[in-house]
Task: structure prediction
Amino acid sequence: MNFSYAQAPMVVDQHIYRKAFQEYLRKGTPIMWSIKQERPTTHYIWRTRRDGKVRSAHAEREGQIFSWDDPPEGGHPGEDYNCRCTAEPYFPEISEYIELSTDGIGTKSGWDNNDFVDHYFNGRGRGVTLSEIGHSRKIIEAFIDLRGEAIKQQIARAARTSRSGNVSYSFVNTYDMTGVVFAIGDTTIGGSFSGQSDEINGVLTIKGNLDFYLNDEFADPLDIGVEVDDYRPSSVVHDIGHGLSEIGEAIGSIGETLYENVHKPLDDYLRERAGLKQLVRKHSRTGRDGVPYPITGEWSGNLKGQIYADPARSQY
Result:
């Protein structure tokens, strides 16, 4: 965001100077001290009345930047005898940014639908992690693409509330990851930010750590379009010929052959044509004896940035 002081209105509160001068007349309180109690920045821009009554020494200071902690000769604006000059709060022009990075997100390859179903029947309910199933990178990158900018905005608002000090923010919601890892689908992702913000001259510097978590459960293989009867090699095979209702262990491999060579290719084709929104179910839901299992994940990250404290000037 580009910002020019030539485009901005002068930010001068004459009430502050009038109040400071009254305190000086009534109590002898130095004008500089009164002003500093209410000043919004550490530096200011010297502004004159720009007329023929301005003394030459002050006219030379027009537009110059001074620190409240290092007054020029004769003092700050309004402190010298009959001085009508004012101090415009100095807000430096910056290039705003907030960067969010994640650590240890793993690879992009992992379990396919068959692996999820196999664990459903053979894993005895043992939970698995994103890194174990190999989908950490896919899920994390998809989440950051989906919610990264919103998280930056929310942390920026928290930093403005804190100004200089500790900053914390927590978030949790359910997100549809069907298009990323079809077997995971809707899943809960949450996290928290813990860091610091420092304000100097109307600019906030933010830095801190992010911790994320994912909670999901694989509970029904039918939800991903894999039929139980077809998947299990030793299961009952239906609708072969007329009246054939059961085939024993000796020819149980026929079920797996039918799944791999007939049902799965057709199912995949139809789901692709339908944008993974329609499922093909050709057999009964009987014979299910698997155990649902949790899918969890944890990862961390860092956030740093520099933004204007005034939201009216900021892109965040």
